[in-house]
């Protein structure tokens, strides 16, 4: 996108940061997986020492599950998106209608969807940890909230596919943004 306006700055920022953020995902997921493994091991040790004041078995099992999810997170998230939305690139049938369609607007929407994808990534990660907190009985943490974070994270990660699914399901030809 050309220009010195806010839209051009946003497109440039996303264009510059996105490759580095893609490398950051495994760099964050592997330590989180290792941390979850050590938390699960510590919970097992506490259970073996004091069975009456031990943490819940479900929370301990979910610590090890979170470890596995964090290690395989990038491919797992892509698989979940493909399960919900299918494989391959987004079909050309999904379109956003706005006045004066041009490459500048397409680049801006691409940058906004890239930011939304990263928000979805963090929502999915938070959902995994909320699920473990729900197993431990933490106040405010429920399994439903955890699964909604996960589902919303996958939908945000693949927002263009979600738009395509909504348009196809409802028979909408163009979703107007005014």
Give a topology summary.
Elements: H1 6-49, H2 57-71, H3 73-85, E1 96-97, H4 103-135, H5 143-157, H6 159-170, E2 175-176
Parallel strand pairs: 1-2
Helix pairs in contact: 1-2, 1-4, 2-4, 4-5
Structure description:
- The longest helix is centred in the first third of the chain and has 44 residues.
- The protein has one domain.
- It is mostly helical and 178 residues long.
- It has a two-stranded parallel ribbon.
- The radius of gyration is 20 Å and the shape is elongated.
- The mean pLDDT is 79.
Q: What is the domain total for the residues?
A: 1
The overall pLDDT, averaged over residues, is 79
* Spatial sequence of strands, sheet with the most strands: 1-2
> Total helix count?
6
Distance between the termini: 21 Å
Query: What share of the residues lie within helices?
Result: over 70%
**Major β-sheet, in short?**
2 strands, parallel
| H/E element order | HHHEHHHE
The total beta strand count reads 2
Low-confidence stretches: none
**General shape:** elongated
Radius of gyration: 20 Å
Which class best fits the helix and strand makeup? mainly alpha
Portion in beta strands: under 5%
Essential attributes:
2 strands; 178 residues; mainly alpha; two-stranded parallel ribbon; single chain
Q: Could you write a compact summary of the structure shown?
A:
This protein is an all-alpha fold and 178 residues long. Strands 1-2 form a two-stranded parallel sheet.
